[in-house]
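Task 17 of the worksheet. Students: predict the tertiary structure of the chain below and write it out as structure tokens. Keep your answer in the requested format; marks are given for formatting as well as content.
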Amino acid sequence: MKYISTRGQAPALNFEEVLLTGLASDGGLYVPETLPTFSEAEIAAMAGMNYAQLAQKIITPFVDDCIPEADLKAILEETYAEFRHEAVAPMVQIDSNQWVLELFHGPTLAFKDFALQLLGRLLDYVLERKHQKVVIMGATSGDTGSAAIEGCKRCKNIDIFILHPHERVSDVQRKQMTTVVGDNIHNLAVQGNFDDCQAMVKASFNDRSFLPSDRSLVAVNSINWARIMAQIVYYFYAAVALGAPARKVAFSVPTGNFGDIFAGYLAHKMGLPVERLIIATNRNDVLHRIMTSGSYGRQPLEHSLSPSMDITVSSNFERLLFDLYQRDGAAIAQLMSDFDNGDIHFSEDAMGAARELFSSQCVSDEETCAQMAATWDRCEYMLDPHSAIGVKAALEAGVPASVPVVTLATAHPAKFPGAVAEAGLGEEPTLPHHLRDLFDRPERCEVLPNELGSVQAFMADNLNA
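Model answer:
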């Protein structure tokens, strides 16, 4: 399988190459040239598979001949053995047609573990075979950083630099990053917001000259195709458990950067019967504004109770736009160039196509707390603030009563005790056993100014792999 850029000018790559690339050389994002599809009979047969087996079924066509079947099987089994629940991604019913897909049973209690535990192992496998060392650079609004560090900490061929906005992530999120010890692990607290961190990552991928010539730069943010690929699996897993392919399923996805819900779109394109994909946003409602107005513009970032979604530039939406504009790379390149200079507006045809599958909801902090409290009162189920936004959006979306709606629960509530307290649940969430001593562990972190040069200089001076 080959991968092509959304902007049409970069060379096509195979899986191994795209794994080690991140942003395309033309500034675009890589997507598969063609998608594998599964018949109704093939989807029905998935009902007998455990999570690792299903992952191999879904992922094998994307990897193609870059990783032998037996090696991929071992990588996947090792990845999902790290999860604390035998089902890996269990579901909980909270209403007659409302379900919560728990994606927080990995090592760092967030959905990012599904992709980043796998990504770390894939990188380790490929780099060991190639006798190559790389630099990983990523920006996090909370969960990506800890999952990336946890997934890559064992990799001796990697230096990993994670940027997070200083004092703008929860205490649990910060400690999960800064307490992992290793000479190749570097936590950088940037005196800015997440968008500033993400902009530094993009700028660094566009000009990598600050690194030695023998060190390539690899992405762990969802610009890396392997992240999206891994997330497709749990859409199939949940839908099959609820009766697919004989029954359609809708999904409500808390999202800011559009990566997680784009995986659901790909699952739909691959044959999964998806009734609707509900984009659930917080007060930073860039995606809701796109869906309702067809306009894409930057607004000041507002800090919320759901910090992992405090994003104003949605990087992965470009991947959907590529399909909405009939895979016209030149058109996407022009749109993104125009976006660098101000607001842009999408065509009626493009937005009409998007609205056939997607709808959106914007949920305030007050509504988030109210939903956390309501769900707790009704069934004593504790939601984290991001998942609560998903549940609220699911309830407001108007999906037919005959269609089950699955909300992706993206994080464990213990990661956000302040939000749980503000919601007035009357009970404090507790960290799982393996993290009970988290606040007793020593931290290591560098606070840097919001300056690209300072960040790049620190990286160049601290390569230890």
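Marker's comment: The two ends are 31 Å apart (CA to CA). The chain has a mean pLDDT of 95.
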